[in-house]
Specification:
The structure is a homohexamer of 76-residue chains.
Chain A: H1 14-32, H2 36-47, H3 50-70
Helix pairs in contact in A: 1-3
């Protein structure tokens, strides 16, 4: 986990920012559960639960706030 | 999922901002569960659960913070 | 849902801001569950559950952050 | 509910700000469940549940962010 | 509860800020459940539940945002 | 718990910022449950529950907002 995976919070477009948010959100989970097999099993578990999905999308929404602010909302 | 769906966070009015927030919120869910059939089944599940509805509206409220800040609150 | 319901985030007083927050919070729920009858049934469900009430008031608190910032906290 | 209860977000001290936060948090609940008797019954319910208490203190924490920002953190 | 417990949000270091956050988080709970005996019983309850612990640390994280912003992140 | 563990919120890179976030998030839990053995038992419990994992990653996302703002998003 010492390899480089987050060189910058800056992206060219909002959509690339959203992709970075997905990466960030998955990393947060991976730090808590580093075992890939267990992680994959749980990912399919919460992806098939309505409550799990909504909770996952809350994390995404929080991280999207951060990345959007970092990029000055790509106001151009 | 590589097609363009988020060209900008800027909207003309608060209400268009709210519509963008709905799009954003659904995308977050779709990234976690890309299978459309499963997604539709769960969407109706949480839309008919009081807890699920409230959790979904938390995601909307967080995303509305982001889009409102991006647009300087449409202060005009 | 294309009629105008959110012309501005600006209000004259904090209390009117709080009223707008209630509108916003209900709209978020309505976008997820557009069926008014189902919505009314669930609203009474979560209004009579301690957990549901607290979750609903989290949404209100998040939206009040947004509206307060939009109005520069009505610092006058 | 049309009487005045939120004339300003500005307080003299952080502690008075915290008191205002409690008022705000209770109002959010009251808007969702206006019936005082039901409200009192539920308040004692969540005040005696560990999860309910923590959820209520999340609402307080979110509202404290708002009031602290409104007061420029009472930096003096 | 009228004694002074929150004279300022400003602290000398990030770590003292974190200590203040713990105080703030406990106060939020105490306002909701003022009975010390019940409170102690519940505190041990959620401290021994994984979900309760995570929820409590969300409150801490939200309050740490507030105190960090109040102190301009101790940028020095 | 009086030893120094949070000298600064400033880090050289986003990735080091993320590492600090993990430290912060674990400290929040540790303040609530100081007993290391109980903590380890619960950590493995929530690391193997989909809901627990998502809740833990919400705390991480909130703390990452704080650390990113502290570092001006490492805009360079």
């Amino acid at each position: 986990m010492t390899q480089s995976w987050l060189p910058s919070l800056i992206t060219a477009t909002p959509q690339e920012g959203f992709d970075l948010v997905i990466t960030l959100s998955r990393r947060g989970v991976k730090y808590t559960q580093p075992d890939s097999d267990k992680l994959m099993a749980m990912r399919s578990a919460y992806a098939e639960s309505a409550d799990g999905l909504t909770a996952a999308s809350q994390v995404i929404a929080i991280n999207f706030q951060t990345i959007s602010a970092a990029n000055n909302y790509w106001r151009g």
